[in-house]
Design a protein that fits this description.
about 180 residues, alpha+beta, Immunoglobulin-like, 2 domains, four-stranded antiparallel β-sheet, 4 helices, about 30% helix, elongated
């Protein structure tokens, strides 16, 4: 009904011309227009927003660096009673060996525990000394990486401080562990 009122406010009839009511009707039409002006502005503004929103977004370049996990081998070195002593994680691609002490290892100030990879040919290759507490990470040399490629077993020997002076264990082999490869 409001639309009909607005329309009739701006339409001149022959009767209005004859009676001199044209000025009153025009004034009413201007007042109606002024009343509806905020709504028209909102529609125009919304139309402008819609056009801006319909434009494609600006290109944003973002660099994401993500370390992709590499294939790792693990082994749990356990005591004869089945108590886990060391957890080893070997990542050949990054040449990294990480060893974590799981349970208290008998402290031996006059000896070190040395970790060995036993190749399929039965040749032991040193992977380094095992920590007596906490965690240690070492970088593997070419011989160790090559040995691990053909190894399915790790061994731990008791060696003099600093490790075996030979290319093989000189002390007793205390523990062995299966090397679980991916």
């Amino acid at each position: 009904m409001a639309g009909v009122d607005a329309l009739s406010a701006v339409v001149e009839t022959d009767q209005d011309r004859n009676q001199g009511n044209i000025g009153n009707r025009k004034l009413a039409g201007h007042q109606e227009f002024a009343r509806r002006l905020p709504g028209l502005i909102a529609i125009v503004t919304a139309g402008g927003w819609w056009r801006a929103a319909s434009r494609p977004p600006e290109a944003v370049t973002q660099t994401i660096i993500e370390r992709v996990p590499e294939a790792v081998s693990i082994a749990v070195v356990s005591s004869d009673e089945g108590e886990a002593l060391w957890l080893t994680r070997i990542a050949p691609a990054s040449r990294e060996l990480t060893v974590r002490v799981v349970n208290d290892v008998e402290q031996r100030p006059t000896n070190d525990h040395e970790l060995w990879a036993l190749t399929d040919a039965g040749v032991p290759v040193s992977l380094g000394l095992l920590p007596q507490s906490g965690r240690a990470t070492v970088t593997l040399d070419d011989a160790a990486v090559a040995a691990l490629a053909t190894s399915s077993t790790l061994a731990v020997s008791l060696e003099p401080p600093g490790g075996s002076p030979e290319a093989a264990p000189t002390g007793p082999v205390l523990y062995t562990a299966a090397l679980l490869a991916p």
